[in-house]
Input
Amino acid sequence: MKANAQIAAERIVERLRAEGFDAYFAGGCVRDLLLGQAPVDFDVATSARPEIVLDLFPRTFAVGAHFGVVLVADEIQGEQIVTEVATFRNDGSYSDGRRPDRVSFSTDAREDVLRRDFTINGMLLDPMVLEEGDDPEKATLDYVGGRADLAAGLVRAIGDPERRFKEDKLRMLRAVRFAARFGFVIEPATASAIRCHAAEISQVSDERVRDELTRMLTEGHARRAFELLDETGLLKQVLPEIDRLHGVEQPPEYHPEGDVWVHTLLLLEKLPAGASSTLAWGALLHDVGKSATFERAPDRIRFHGHVEVGSRIAAEICRRLRFSNEETAQVLALIENHMRFGDVMRMKESTLKRFLRLPKFAEHLELHRMDCLSSHGDLSLYHFAKERYETIPEEAVRPRLLVTGADLIAAGYAPGPSFKEMLSLAEDAQLEGRIQTTEEGLELVRSVFSRT
Ligand code: ATP
Ligand code: MG
Output
């Protein structure tokens, strides 16, 4: 069945054609239709100038007026759909390696295709000649050999790859992302241009680099993406800390799989499409402290303090890539707690409950599971923790506290630095089932702390 987004885009094309303009589906949606995959969104390219598009449709938003991009909103079967309608354009010269100095609008579809990044992203489709069930091939306009590259599984820059990457450095990361997503090869001249210009990726803003990396990590092909980043020399530029995990040996009894890089790739391989970005970054960074703490001790290889060092390195990466405070906190928590599963069977009940209380504990569990499956393969601690997480009721893990600050004050204690200790003494006893009432809690506090 046709998606509502496709119906909305078809209506727009139809309307523009009725007014005498040229209009097509363009870019990623054509690629996906030809691959038999459902496009996430449908973009329309047209010869109509933005002010005309704004005039023709009742609900529009001029988002990238400068680039000729207008959003057209519509409602199909109760679903709100927003379609990007972009005027054919020629991007002219680029002097900052990020965006064109000025764009000129065009009435030539072919010119619009030539400014796009890769041949597989450079096709147009005429939905007006397509009947339900038709092969989309017959409606495709392909000026750049996109169909042949789709069939051959190649990500190839449109035009001269050197020039195209010089214009916009972000395209280097996009090449890797699309190759990983579709299991394609980066065409040799395109790959060699990336290797040649990899260092210039530093001209792209940190946020855009972060967003590309996050997409690579969460589209279900993270391992391939990181292998390609490595092969193209981009990894060294964008995440030198991960590049340093190459060749960091590990004790074979715990890590039969190999060095820390190999171990990390095995985790990335297990990240499903749609994985949360914090889990994905946590998986990527969980052992990032191992290269700086590697030590060949007399008994075996050790990584003393790798969790603390890793957390500091990850904090620096999150700062550099401008993660939000909330995301940073979760990524660091995943790293800081990943070794604690080793103690989970020995933990006091209160310690275990506090552990299970970590925000988004399910992500900690999942990271531990991937970590085990990417090394020794023993999931006994995972199953133990998961069982406790699922069976201990919420009110036992986060009970209403029997002893609060107000209770301490009422019992004659003056608020001060030792309050925190008193409260956690009582809370531990409560979590372990040693006290059942406020009075018992206060008695316990009295047995340890005198009132002064
Ligand atoms: P996705 O499925 O990830 O959205 P997409 O191909 O739709 O893939 P978008 O980033 O949505 O990619 O961009 C839409 C289209 O715009 C691309 O298919 C491509 O033709 C063009 N495009 C996007 N970014 C660039 C760029 N940096 N340089 C040149 N063309 C680009
Ligand atoms: Mg898209």
